[in-house]
Amino acid sequence: MSVIVCPRCGAKNRVPAARRGKVRCARCHTDLPWLIDADDTTFDDAVRLATLPVLVDIWAPWCGPCRQIAPVVERLSRDLAGRLKVVRVNADQAPGVSQRHGVTGIPTLLLYRDGTEADRVVGALPEARLREWVERAIAEAAVG
Question: Is 66 a catalytic residue?
Answer without folding.
Answer: yes
